[in-house]
Specification:
Number of helices: 3
Order of helices and strands: HHH
Number of strands: 0
Shape: elongated
Largest sheet: none
């Protein structure tokens, strides 16, 4: 995995963790709608990380990604 891919993966991981904490905070406050919103964000970050790994860690905006996708 190149440096850019690693940074993106780490950022998505951190975003998923933060969204998970936001879910917990919203639930503690009784804000079910807010919790659902944060849960969707957490799931989106997790799905994006999984998709990147399944695609062979290729990004279309890098030369490596262009090669992988062809």
């Amino acid at each position: 995995m190149n440096t850019l891919a690693q940074l993106i993966d780490r950022r998505r991981e951190a975003a998923a963790i933060v969204a998970g904490l936001d879910v917990e905070i919203a639930m503690a406050l009784g804000d079910r709608d807010g919790a659902r919103k944060h849960l969707k964000e957490m799931e989106a970050q997790t799905v994006a990380r999984q998709a990147m790994r399944e695609a062979g860690r290729c990004f279309s905006f890098t030369p490596e990604g262009d090669v992988c996708r062809s």
